[in-house]
Amino acid sequence: MGEYRTQMKIIGDILSTTRDDLQDENGATVTYLIRKANISHSRISTLLKTLVSQGLLEQADSQGSNRYKISQSGREFLQAYNSFTKFADNFGLNI
Amino acid sequence: MEFLLENILNLVGFLVGLAIGLMSYIGFRNTGSPTLFRLTIAFVSISLGFFVIWSGYMVEDFIIKSGSIERWIQTVGIVIQTVGYFFIAFSHSIKSFFPKSNYFRSVGILPFFLVSTVQLEHIFRSVSFILLVYGAIETMLSYRDNKNKGAISVALGLGLLAFGEFLGWYSFVFPESILYTISMTIKIAGLIALFIPVSKVPLKKIKFDDDLDKI
Question: Where are the domains of chain A?
Fold first, then answer.
């Protein structure tokens, strides 16, 4: 049975992938993110829309498909997320 | 000696609680995490509880000078701290803390109208003890999953606070004994153990960003 992930953890996984594990410099495709973040298409679509609208991800149209790259705000959010994940870990909690 | 230790404990408790509460709040503002929101409420409550008791001692020491703190101030401080301990335990998913039946809910409130502030203090001390033990066990169990050494320190801190709370509660049987002083010392050690791993979390480059709290 897989480990339960909170919405925050899934967002962290998506942002980490777009920061550290890109296919190429154009960004990651939805299919690639679905595979890397292990999430359904319907759920990732909603999350990607939210992340783009919040300015954490940048969306680009490349070779006929949408590609996603992390923005500066996204990097700052991810840094805060990683720090506070450690903080919550100390209390045995997930953020 | 007891008076001095009580003052130190409450001041340390206020500062440690405030520091962890502020860090939790910064985390909540940056990530919007409900867990960090609950930790914020928990540690701000704990801090406020210690502050109320500390203020009571200060007022007694410099203004009233009767030789002992007003009992109701101590009770109010302990009640506020218990709220904080509840939120720590609640973060570990206490889902059945309150009875579902309306009858039991009403019966559960009844004792508060029947007991004096002295008895209330003992009730809340024992509730704090249970919540702290629960939090310590859950935090210790989490170490099995994440192998984070900080969790051991936090579990130890919560455990020491629980033991200190127990000794503090038990000392009413032997009012003039050394038990109460030991209880204060253990609680101060518990607060320090709680703060050590939290102080190591790197927060240097983190800043507030209002747009992020909508996530």
Answer: 7-88
Distance CA B96, CA B86 (A): 13
Q: Is A90 in contact with B27 (Cβ distance < 8 A)?
A: no
CA distance B39 to A95: 10
The pLDDT tens digits along chain B (215 residues) read: 667 878 888 899 899 999 999 999 998 988 888 889 999 999 999 999 999 999 998 888 888 877 777 778 888 998 999 999 988 888 875 433 444 455 545 545 544 454 555 567 777 888 888 889 999 999 998 888 888 888 999 999 999 999 988 888 777 777 767 888 888 889 889 989 999 988 887 665 444 444 444 44
Give this complex's ipTM.
0.77
Distance from CA of A21 to the nearest CA of B (A): 22
Question: How many angstroms separate the CA of residue A54 from the nearest CA in chain B?
Answer: 7
Fold of A7-88: Arc Repressor Mutant, subunit A (1.10.10)
Chain B residues in contact with A55 by the CB 8 A cut-off are 211
Tokens, residue A87: 């903080």
Q: Which amino acid is at A92?
A: G
Q: Which residue in A has a C-alpha nearest to residue B145's C-alpha?
A: A92
